[in-house]
Structures are given as structure tokens and as C-alpha cells.
Design goal:
Blueprint (H helix, E strand, L loop, with lengths): L5 H7 L4 E5 L2 E6 H11 L10 H17 L2 E7 L7 H24 L10 H11 L4 E3 L5 H11 L3 E3 L13 E3 L9 E3 L2 E8 L2 H8 L6 H8 L13 H4 L6 H12 L6 H8 L5 H15 L6 H13 L7 H4 L7 H5 L5 H9 L1 E3 L17 H12 L4 E8 L2 E8 L18 H12 L3 H5 L9 H14 L3 H17 L10 H23 L15 H12 L6 H4 L1 H10 L9 H4 L7 H5 L5 H9 L1 E3 L17 H12 L4 E8 L2 E8 L18 H12 L3 H5 L9 H13 L6 H17 L11 H23 L15 H12 L6 H4 L1 H10 L2
Parallel strand pairs: 2-3, 2-5, 3-4, 5-6, 9-10, 12-13
Antiparallel strand pairs: 1-8, 7-8, 10-11, 13-14
Helix pairs in contact: 3-5, 6-13, 8-10, 8-12, 11-12, 17-22, 20-22, 21-23, 21-25, 29-34, 32-34, 33-35, 33-37
Length: about 800
Amino acid sequence: MGILSLFRLVDNLGVPQDWRFSAGSLVIDGSDLVYRLYFTSGLDQNHGGEYGAFKDLVTQFIEALHKCDIRPYVVFDGCADFSDQKWETQMQRAESRVRKAGRQAKSGEAKGVLPTLIWEVFRQTLDELKVPLARTYTETDRQAAALAQEWGCPVLSNDSDFFIFPLTGGMLPNNHFRWQEVQQRGAQSFIPCKRYHFSCFCETFSIEPQQLPVFAVLAGNDYTKNILGAGDMRFGEQRWLSDAQLQELLQRISGFKNADPQRVFEEFLKDVSPEQREQRINSLQEAADHYSLPLSSLSSLSDFFNQDTLPPLPPQMVEVVPDWMRLPVTKAWFSSDFLDVLTNQRVGLSVVVDHKDKPSANQVSLPLRRVLYGLLLGRDRTVEERDRDGQEVIFTNVQTDASVSPQLSLLSLPQTALEQRRQVLLKALGVNEQSLSSLPSRLRNLALPLAATRFWLKEATPPPDLLKALLIGWCRGDTLRKNADLGQVLDRDRHWLNQWQSCLRDSFLLNQLLGAPLPEPPMAGLYNGVLVHSLLDEMKRGLLNQSYIRDEDFKALLSIAQRPIERNCPNQMVEVAPDWMRCPVTEARFSPDFLDVLTNQRVGLSVVVDYMDKPSANQVSLPLRRVLYGLLLGRDKEVEERDRERQEVIFTKVQTDASASPQLSLQSLPQTALEQRRQVLLKALGVNEQSLSSLPSHLRDLALPLATTCFWLKEATPPPDPSLLKALLIGWCRGDTLRKNAGSKGFLNHHWCNLLNQWQSCVRDSFLLNQLLGAPLPEPPMATLYNGVLVYSLLDKMKRGLLDQSYIQDIDFKALLSIAQP
């Protein structure tokens, strides 16, 4: 992105002049425009994006240009530059994006992180508006500058590299391009803006035009700031030069009248040893050549826009990029990721706003990318992916997967039968043709996102409400999104939805490479983060407009999305397990206990480490299991439980309890309103909605274990000492910090042991009940709820009066304790 801080200097000195732009061609830096439009519009960055609103914004922008008789030509970047010259720069940018995304997830403040599908939405919108666009094979600035120079028109960008190119039509800084303030002069409309011209810059600093590239490389642009020792250390090593430093550099260069760049570089490197000087001068000269516009390159994009003549492949791509790919690449039908993989076997994955403790959302769609890489490179190859782990940038070698496309070759892919290509796509997504055949014809353009959603449901196992919110958005998004209120953002929901966007994007790219065997979907209408989170919030509070889920299109999509993955079901289960349960059971989202109860009316309870003179810890949570059995089998049935009495194995007949759920049927459980299912759960736990309403939003994923703890305090025998409750809650609030230094395991008090076993039994059975009911309370992070060593250590400290009092003064601890203690 050019020379750091040069933009500020140019602005401060008033080099760009006021200009009224109308009636002419305009070369647009596509990447820069996306950033500029999205980040200055106030569109959502925390809920996963507002693609429909962004499409509207792009449309308004293009309409403003057309109103002023401005002819836009948009140019996109191609293959990323993975050379050593730019490697450190790219690493720094990736690290910065990861840090910004993590901070944004925590604070909710916009930090400048683009949503996942933004490039697909932008490209589709330009296509719909019939805006000429092109993707270059490599970075776009040099070719965009060459095109603008040939046509004598300006470039619209905020990339300060365009300050250096000798453009007769000048450059229009995007931050001064007031396209929303179209004005009239006579019969002609115009856009007020500022125009930068390199000659004004040269006059301001008394520098010769041929010295501009010299200034750029010595100031340390993308191509030189990482070349060790390339230039005067005073300038070459700095990441951000002050205005005074830039002006000092310009003043020194201005003293070289009629000198070629070699002479200037030699002067700046005069104190470098002769054996190193030549190599460093060559590095600087190579970077300066980036700003030259040789005649041979001028007609490349011009001929494409005027005559559809495809630019030739650069030498490094001739052997690896098939000739047939030139057209879809240049027309921007194909992602630049394809070029990255083919040319460098490297690709940078999306960075999204997500909690740093969550795994990268890109992991869930890795199987799709492996198939994509297999089509591009063939079998037994690897691709290096740049992603994140926590807040660290990591690099992972990923093996290609050619198993789903053994007969396909990249060279002859366009000649492969459409049906064969479609089967490769569907096989990668784990979807068969029949599952999509019932899709109404009016919804056929949703076949790909629907298949991608089924893949996501299988790989990510989200709760049902997220699927419903997404599908309502597909069916009614255009109507609802303009009035959607900002819903509460739960890290859990955001992560699942980030995973969905990753699945959608990677399935979109796979479909793209395969020549669209499924229709290309309207990406702008598939997701609005504000709307989806608003719908989720309404569902959680039981306020969802029921007409949304009675919509015929919604029901058609939902029935296909929830259709079980075709697997053989044992004969003994066909009559007793509803069809809707096959998918969550097969994907291990449901406990096998459910099948034991449905099939055999028998279940084996957990055996835990306990003092054998104590009763089984499972007894305390029996009321929860009876409600669970009632949901599975109905009223007046029995389940045989295997448990212990002292050191003997015993079998006990347990009566089902359907009193908490008299209106619910296992067969139609997924169709039961969320609020009704939540009330069944809360009634079983003996907790009312009001008691959980004061739980702070950032602790909402602890609602289930907190309600369960209230149940345990009431049912456990003997009644738990308050110190046990405090130790548990401290673990919830500070467990990640304290568990690594818990120290002594503490004395194994037999009363504590049995009571804590009872608590774990209650948590497990309430978890299963919540699971069967479709998660009416958020599924809690089970790994963080209990650490035995830490709990016993805390109990021991409390007993000896050594507990750090800051633990119980913690705001979260107090909030949880006030609810748990009536």
C-alpha cells in the first residue's frame, strides 16, 4: 500500500488541488474502493457483515459516477507477491489484522476488519451493474497506472504508490472523492474531489520527476522497507517516517540535478563497504523499476477492455496456469486464491472478528479447500495456509485431496461433463442429488448455499436456532434487514456463523473452479449479521414473529437442510427413533444414552471415584433424568437404570415423568417453539426465567450450569456448604488463570468428594436434557466448568483462611453468587 505517512505529508502541504470531475474515464483501484466504502459507511463489522447494505452502497456509488458521465473501469489485484521483498510486510499486515479482529471481538469497537464474503459481493454487484472490471495476474497498481496513462485519465485510490507514477491524468485520493455530494454546473453534473498530480509534488519539493521512484524506495515502500540495509539506515529501517524526515529526504534528493538513480543510490550508500554496495544498489534499482511504465505493458488492460484481448500470462505462470483460465481470471470470475495456489502453493485465509480463544473459523471448511487444492495441483501435493491460532499467525501445510475427483484434470476441466463436475462438488459437500431435488424452482439459485449449510451443520454442529435465523434471512432479508435492531452478540453464536461463512465461501470457490455446476447464488442476500443476531435474540426471548417460520419458502429450505444424512438405520431403531434424530445422533451431537433408552429402555449410569459408604451421586439428579425419559418415551413408561449401592451393582426401575412437558411430543420436538422448550427445561431445574434475567450478557453461556447449580443446592444431600459453591464459581471466573498454578491438590474430604460428584451428575443430566430440547439455553463451555485440583485447592485455602479475597470481590463472581444464593 505504498509509502507510509506520505499521504499525510501530501495532504498537509495541500499538494492535491480541488477539482470538479465529470465526463471521462476513471480507473478504480478495486481493493482500495472496497475498504473505503465499507469502513466509512458505518456498516456492521461485529456481527459478520451487512452485505445487502454494502451492495446498495456500491450501486449508489456507480450511479453517482454515471450521473456525472464518468465511465468507471475497476481493476483487482491478482496473485499475491510472496517474494522475500514483501514477505515481512505481509506478515506484519496479517498479524495486525489478527490483533485487530481479537480486540474488536472483545470491545465491540470497529477496528477495520472486512467480513468474509465481501469480495464475492463486490464482484457480483459490479457484474450486475455492467461495470467493466478486470483482474490482473499480479499486483494491480503498475498495470492500473499504465492503463490510466494510456487513456490520459485519473486513478481513484488511496494507495500512495500512485503518487509516484508519472500519470498525466493524475490521481484522485479516495478520501477526498465526495461522490455522495454530486453537484451541478450548467447541464453537467460533477463530483467534487481533489486531484493529485506528480508535477505539483515535484514543484513543491524542487525534485525532478525521474527522482520520484528514488525517493519512494529510499523512504521505504512495500518493496524496500524490508530489504536489509537497502539505503541509508536513517531512512531505510523506519516503518513510519515523520513529515520532517520525509522532507529532509526530499531535500537531499532534490540536490541531485539531472542525475540518474544509480548516482543517487551510490551517494546514499557511500559509507557501505564496496562488497555490499553493489548488491544493495541492485535491490534499490529493482524496486525503483516498479514505477516505470514501459510501452510494452501499456496496451495490456486497454486491449482487454476495448477488444476483449486477453493479457499474456507472466513468465512465472506460463507453466502452471492453463490457458483456459486466463479468461475467467481476467474477468474476475475466478478468485485470486487460485493463482496463489498454482504459482506459490501458498494462500492467506480470511481473518474475521472472533474471540481469540475460539479456533479459527477456517478449520471447519478445510475438507472443501483440500478438494479445491487437489483440483488445482493434483494428488500428493501440499499448500501452505496462513491462518491464526489464538492471536498468533500460523502456517500449516495442507495435503491436497484428489479422492473425490480422481478422473478430473485441471487442463481439461472445461471439457468435463457438467454432471461429472456437479457430482464432484456434491460429494465434497457430502450432499446427494436427491436431497436438493425437492427444492422449488424459484429457489434453485439457493442450491449451493443450502448444500454448504448442510455441510456446516454436519461439520460444526450448531444449535437449531442459528439455522432458522439464517433461512429467515434468505427468505425475508430484503424486507427485514432495514429495520433490524442490533442483537446481542454471543461469542458462541458469532463463531458458528463465522464457520458458516467460511463453508459458504469455500464451497463458492469450489463451485467457481468447477464451472458453476450449481447456480451461482446472490451472495449479498445470503447474510446480514445484524438481522441474524436480532432474530436469534428474538428467538431466545420468545418474541419471534411466528409468520416467519410458517413461510412456505422457509419450510421448504428447512426441510432440506434438516434432512438426515443418508445412513442405514438399524431395524430395531426405525420404529422408536424419530427421523429427525438420525442426524444429531450420527454426528455425535446427541448422547448414545438417548438410543439406549429408546431402544432398550435401559441405561448405565456413570461410575465415579467416591467413598463407597456414600450413596451414588447419580441419585440427586434422578428428577432430571425422569423428565428426560418422559420426553423420550412419554408418560407411564419405565427405564431400567444400572447404578451402584455401596460396592454392589444394582438395577432400578425408574418411572418416566411427563408432567413437566405434557404438550410436547418427541416426534415434533424440533417444531416446538423455543420458549416452550426453555420453560420445560427451567421447570425441571426448578428455576424461573426471572432468576436468570440478571445474568450479565457476557456470562450468558453460564446460564445452564448456573441453573443446574441452583438445582444441586436444593436437592443435594447433605446440603452443600457455601464454601463449595464459592470454589466452583471462582473456578468459572478465574479457572483459566488459576488452574495452571493450583499447587497442592488439597485434602480429599469425603463430604466434598460426594457433593461435588453430585454436582457433576446434575450438570451432566441437565446438559443432556438441554441437548434433547434443542439447546433452549446456550450450550456451556464444559471444559472450563470444573477443575478438581483447583476446586480442592481453593476449598483448602478457605478452610485455612488463606483465600485471596480479590477472588470473591470479582464482579462476575458476585453476579453469579447473587443468583445462585436465593
